[in-house]
Structures are given as structure tokens and as C-alpha cells.
Amino acid sequence: WYRFQFNEDYTFAQIYLAYTGLNLEIPRQILSFSMTHQPSVPGLCPPSKHADKNTFSRCATWRRESGILWNPRQWVYYVFQIVDKDGEPVQPYFDKYVEFIKSKERGNTTRAKQAGLSWTTPSSVPVGYANAFVG
Fold first, then answer.
1. Cβ partners under 8 Å of residue 56, min gap 6
2. Which of 106, 110, 101, 109 shows the shortest CA–CA distance to 129?
3. Which among 25, 42, 48, 130 could disulfide-bond with 87, CB atoms 3.0 to 4.6 Å apart, if both were Cys?
4. pLDDT tens, per residue, the chain with 135 residues
5. Distance of CA 36 to the CA centre of its chain
6. pTM for the complete prediction?
7. Torsion angle, CA of 71/74/77/81, rounded to 10 degrees?
């Protein structure tokens, strides 16, 4: 599980990998995950349909950084808000998400059922479906 520790104005979060059953949390000095809020850039966001990856990334809601003690490299990726507080799609990010999901294989329905999960194919997810996983 992840535990998010936000600053006072919710513009930064330190993210901890936690094992709740064992009451164990990995210290950020060993495994560091964080995210920083990126304000929307007027005139740039949302990007055009044909924007390059760098331009599109500047419109992400969050910039995620990950690092591990023995590797000086930082991994950076971007998190986009795909639904609003009412569960309505945020465009063009929702459509890009659906396009991405449809491009992936269907998954292992047997394993999902063993884990107590129901498997929904992307084409059957209704518009406005508010439960989303970002990881």
C-alpha cells in the first residue's frame, strides 16, 4: 500500500510504501516516491491533439519522482487527472487513458477472480465511471 503525506497546501506529497499487515513502512532514504503539483499553463493546456510528449507532460496534474538508495538515477513520470470530483471525464486526458487501456491486453481474469477482483473490459466502462487506479 501507499501512504501519501501531503504538505499543508496539497502541492507536494511524499509517498511511502507501507505494509499495513506488518506495520512496516519503507523509509524515504531507501525508497523515495514523491509527487509535485503542476499548475496548468494558460494557453498550453489542454494541449492540441497532436502535441508532442514533452508538451503534453507539461499539462499533467502531478509530476512523480521515484528513486532508490543504491541508484543515483531518478525516474520521472506524469499523472493526469482523468475524472473530476463528480466523476465526469476530463478531456482530452480521459480519452487518452481509454485509448491506452484499449491498447493493452485484456489481463488474466482467472487471477483477478482469485484476488477477489472483478475484471471489466475497457469497452464496457461507462463514461463518467469515477473509480480509477493510478499507480
1. 47
2. 101
3. 130
4. 888 999 999 999 999 988 877 788 888 888 889 999 999 888 888 888 788 888 889 999 999 999 988 888 889 999 999 999 999 999 888 988 888 887 776 666 777 777 776 655 555 444 444 444 443
5. 12
6. 0.66
7. 110
